[in-house]
C-alpha cells in the first residue's frame, strides 16, 4: 500500500510554492494570513427522509465527480452489500491526509469493509491537487482547508466546505442516504478539516471522529452540540499531541486535549471525565454531564503512538490495542442527529 500521508516536517517548500496560482486554482491566491470566508450561512438541516424511490445505484464501489467553484471535484463511494435503494442508509465521510488520495484512504481507514458488515455507505472525497506546489511536476499535494492546516488548500482558502455541500447534494440524488445519520472522520489534515465541518456544518454532520488532527478554526460556533471522538498518538512527530506551530505555512494549533475540551465546553459538558476504554497502550476518556448527554467529547490517547491510524499496524505502526474504525462506528451508531 503506497501511502504518502502527511509528513509536514519535510514539506517546507509548501510555504512558498503554495502561495502562487495554479491550474487547479485559477483565482488570485490570498495572503497566508487571510481569514477563511464565512461559510456558516450554509449550515442548514436537510429534510428528514423516511423512504426513497427511483434510485438505481446498487452495491459496489463508484468514482463520481461533482462540479463546484469552476472545478471538477472527485469522490469515491462504497455502497455496502445488502443495500436497499428504498431505505435511508447511514453515511460516513472520511477525509484523507495531506498528499494522499481517496484510494489510499479507503485502504487506511477500512470503512468500506466495515460498512459491508454494518450496513453504512462509505465516502472518500479527494482534496485538490496542486501539481507544482512542491516544485516538482510529479509532486502530490492534495489537501484540505482546515484553517490552521494544511498546504495549498489552506493557504489559498479553497472552499472545501462548499465542495462538501455539493458532494452531499450529489450523493443524496444517487443513493438513499439518511440525513440524520451522516458522520465525518479524517486523518491528519483531514482531521483538521473534520473539525472544521463540525464548526460550520453541525446541521449536516451528526458526529465527528478525527484522527491525528486538531481543532484549528479561528472561530468555531457550532449551531448545535456535535459529539466528538478524537484519536491521537502521544509521540506524534507531525501533528504534536501537545499542540504547536510546526506546520509549514500553517498556523498554531491546540493540543489534542484542548481540541476536545473546546467541544466539551460547546456541548455543555459540566461533569468529570470518565474512562471509557483501556487496553495496552490505549486509553479513552469522555466528558460527562453534556447537553444532551450523548453529545460527549472524547479523547483516545495511544501512549507512545506515532502519526498513525489506530488498528493499522502497517502504516506508521498503528497500535493493535485499539481499532479506531470500529470504535468510530460504535460512537456514530449511538449518536444520530436530533
Automatic annotation (TrEMBL):
GO cellular component annotations of the record: extracellular region
Q: Which SUPFAM superfamilies match?
A: alpha/beta-Hydrolases (SSF53474)
Return the annotated region ranges for Disordered.
Answer: 20-48
Listed PROSITE patterns: PROKAR_LIPOPROTEIN
Task: Kindly list the places in or outside the cell where this protein is found, as annotated in its UniProt entry.
Answer: Secreted
Q: Which Pfam family would be a valid example here?
A: Esterase
Give the GO molecular function terms. Answer: feruloyl esterase activity
Q: Name one GO biological process term.
A: xylan catabolic process
Highest taxon in the source lineage: Bacteria
Query: Which keywords has UniProt assigned to this entry?
Result: Carbohydrate metabolism, Hydrolase, Polysaccharide degradation, Secreted, Signal, Xylan degradation
Q: Give the signal peptide range.
A: 1-20
Please give the chief subcellular localization of this protein. secreted
Start-end of Low complexity biased regions? 30-43
* PANTHER family in the record: FERULOYL ESTERASE C-RELATED (PTHR38050:SF2), PTHR38050
What is this protein's record name?
Answer: Poly(3-hydroxybutyrate) depolymerase
Write down the species.
Corallococcus sicarius
Q: Source taxonomy lineage?
A: Bacteria, Pseudomonadati, Myxococcota, Myxococcia, Myxococcales
